[in-house]
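INTERNAL AUDIT FORM
Audit reference: QA-55
Scope: verify that the stored structure record matches its stored sequence.
Auditor: D.O.
Record contents follow.
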Amino acid sequence: MAAEQATHRVQGVKAVANDIEVRLPSSAERTDADLAAAVLNALRWDAAIPAGKLEVTVSKGWVTLKGVVEYNFQRRDAERAVERISGVKGVSNLITIKPHLSPTDLKQKIEKALVRNAETDARHITVEVQGSKVTLYGTVRSYAEKQAAADAAWSAPGVSEVDNRIVVSPIV
């Protein structure tokens, strides 16, 4: 996974064909049943992941995660918790994010988060919400402020995508 991520960071790379096969020493091999139990335990022990919301399938060391969570960080945490388990050869994260809010309520939550955040000047940021996708527009004074606005959007429940179109300009 680290090799794939590093390859994606190389400028100009548009796609990666990952043909790396994970082969564990016989002492590290685990049965799919053993791995499934370990994955369930790891998910249970992670306080950020809601109990009982995820389904786990293990086939030849490859783990598939399915289910619905409310926040993107829960989706990411589930994958991180699983990929570190000895014997796991790969993870397919099919977890979806579903808001319990209407798009209008979601927009208001993000706008309030922007106002509360000391790093952002919310007056110059516009928030649009379509379903669970958030688009940010406007102008801010620094890249850190642009990133803080995106972080505020990601922190709202149900956000599955943030399109950060904020422009950085020292003169706002």
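Auditor finding: record pair retrieved intact. The beta strands are 54-59, 62-69, 90-97, 125-130, 133-140, 161-164, 167-168.
Action required: none
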